[in-house]
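Much of the work behind modern protein science is quiet bookkeeping, done one molecule at a time. The protein below has been through that process, and both of its lines are reproduced in full.
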Amino acid sequence: MQRYQFVLATLIVFLLTACSGNKIIPAPVAPVFSSTPVTQAEEATPYTYQLAASGAAVTFSLTNAPAGATLSGSTVSWTPTAQQSRVPNSFTVTATASGGASATQSWTVTPSGTIRINWVDTYWNETGSTDKPFNWTPVSSFVAALVPQPDGSFKSFFGAVGANGAFEIPSVPAGYYWLRIAPRGTYWTSSSTFDMGTDLFSPVVNGVAPTSSTTYFNFSFTSLDPTATSGLLQFDTPEWTPLHYSASTNPGSTTFVGAFGFGGNLDFSLIKNAFVRQYEPATLGSVNAYLLGPTLTLSNLSLTTGGHNTISGALNPTVPASLNLSIKGSAWAPLFDHIAPTAPTTAGSSFALSVQPYIASDNPKIWLTSPISLIWTKPSGAPGLVSVTCSTNPPLTSDVEAGTVQYSDPFPSAWRRTFSVCQSASVAVPVPGGKSQNIILTNTQTTLLPTMAVKPLISPVQNPKINGADLFTTGTINSAAVTISWDPPAVGTPFGYDVAIMQPITLLAGTASYTSTATLSTAKTSMTIPPDLLKSGQTYLFVITSLADGRANMETSPHRSSLPSASAQLISAPITAN
């Protein structure tokens, strides 16, 4: 026992002796940041943040930062670019003391920035395309970014025409805002760049004569197909859409004679091309239709403005083409349920297989073209235009199983073929003053040449509400902040929605009629209506349209379109603002 006590005592003495000649070194102390990051910034304006931290001989390093940011000593410097504005930009700084201990500070800066609206329309014709900038002058004082505020109001930011014809609105904070370009063109977006341009068909010829006169056209055509019942003859020119002539053909006849006059100050001598087409009656299941037969393409016309012009020739024989036609009309019928406060009445329908002159299949969707129909539904009344119209044909409520349909297609294979379907329903809505008004709602779609049964591409939105109440129930809204919401369509995937605000106006005859006064567009399924659109004591209707498209983006480029495209509508009950 004494031996163990001796060993223990010796060990204690050794340890005390060893420690008496050394000092205990404390662990390095990490710096502590005493500066608060600057989080306010603006595009193209220098941003600085002066760093400060406690500690011995502290040095700073920039370990994470957006492009262009630098650190000199203790100062962070950065000038936000257009691409860096209105989006979060992350920073991280490391502070290191002389002993090697360090600390980090991270923050995010979202600079306010300039919104740039580019409006350059692209005009297409047989020679290609030409860009034409929009003239902002008439609307420059109206264009604004309406930014929502915490109290539910909106703050307006205005701008001016910038470089290269773009319209620029500076100092707009991050987040969503209403981009107000026109009463019928207001978009909910968070984008810093917005393309308002549209692809349009613009004929090469659009001449104006020095004086107004009446120009006469006398037609004489031969080599028509004799048909058992009356058909239709169409004459029009791709250079100028309104120059259109349509008349019935006689049963059994192979010739056609007709005439018409056109008053105005247009220079017809500039028109060089025209299409003459015979449409032959056919029955496609339960649908009466026209099929393209013999045609004649006229070139190098020499027309006299203010004179008599004789246009004649022999139509060329049919160029065989065929389509296996199947349209699931019954699939559209349920889509007209729950689209109005009361059950709508089916109003009409139509479909058409068409060719677009000079437009290639890989071009974007181009508006204002004059398609040439190859197959189209026969109007219920007198012969009309060849375009798809919903109001002149019986409703398509059952399937069309026509099998292989033979028609003529003599046009260049490079031209785009499209297939369009339109269905419509009529809704009676009460108008202030005790009367009612019939409003037409439509479901439309356009695709390339179908290879299978044609079905609806999109349906109307579901469960629409206003401030949480059923939009199909007549009521009064008592809030300054009005929110309309809905569920997505059961059929299709929309790229966005239009909400048209309709209010009654007094016509010249003294009667009231609902008319669209504003259109709001969004990719979301709800919207808070911007200020000054709804007036106290006024009654409104809201028409919500779901929109599908192969290219358009509601928040960046809503009018740059491609096939397929489709739309479907519903309408609210009368809602009074209070």
